[in-house]
Amino acid sequence: MQRCPNCSYKLVLLSNRPKYKCALCSKLYPRKEIESKDFQEFNKRKKIEDIETYEKERKEQLSKIREIKSHLKRLFNGFPKLSKLDYEKNKAQILTRNEEWRLRNIEYDDNRKKEYYKENKEKILQKHKLKRQENPQEYSQKRKDWRTKNIETNRMHYIIRTYRRKQKALALQRLENSQQEASNINIFHSVPTYPHSYLLTH
């Protein structure tokens, strides 16, 4: 809607001549002049809106690009190294973020650890060995704590190993007995070792 340049009131297009008339101050303006001015103002507003829209979209795009670069950098180089002071200051937050990242990327984290261990196996084993030699008491305490915590599991493993040794001894004795009866014409049907396990429990 065209406005009067003098009082900003609405202009009305006259039907008998190509001019606009203000209903408030009764001034007349050529149609071409008003429409040209209105078109210029429209272009000006549109240009400002386009610039604002472009700047907004550009900021969003740059933000996405920075985020993608950050993720790629972290993917190939790991988390950025912090100074000891910064790490101690933000230790709880850093550990929480690391744990959240591992939970979101369990499969990738496991594969990464396996590949690292495969490439640095000797170095890792040597490092663990030196650590045990430097802190024998701490290592012994950890083993003791683990045995105490898993006492039932260790007991079950011991029972299984004992039964396997006894079953092996019975199987070897049975094999020796079958060799002594090899002169028999009939085919000797050896009893499987599984039935002997019944004897072990009684």
Descriptive overview:
It contains eight helices and three strands. The protein has a three-stranded antiparallel beta sheet with strand order 1-2-3. With 202 residues, it is mainly alpha-helical. The chain has helices spanning 31-77, 84-89, 91-104, 106-119, 121-134, 136-149, 151-180, 196-200; strands at 11-13, 19-22, 28-30.
Distance linking N and C termini: 106 Å
Which structural class is indicated by helix and strand composition?
Answer: mainly alpha
Number of DSSP-assigned strands: 3
Q: What's the number of helices?
A: 8
Strand order of the largest sheet: 1-2-3
| Relative helix content | over 70%
Poorly predicted tracts of residues: none
Give the integer mean of the pLDDT values: 78
Give the overall silhouette.
rod-shaped
Order of helices and strands: EEEHHHHHHHH
Percentage of residues in strands: under 5%
The radius of gyration over CA amounts to 44 Å
How would a crystallographer describe the biggest sheet? 3 strands, antiparallel
Keywords:
202 residues, three-stranded antiparallel β-sheet, single chain, mainly alpha, 8 helices, 3 strands
Short description:
The protein has eight helices and three strands, in the order βββαααααααα. By secondary structure, the chain is mainly alpha-helical.
Fold blueprint:
Blueprint: E1 11-13, E2 19-22, E3 28-30, H1 31-77, H2 84-89, H3 91-104, H4 106-119, H5 121-134, H6 136-149, H7 151-180, H8 196-200
Antiparallel strand pairs: 1-2, 2-3
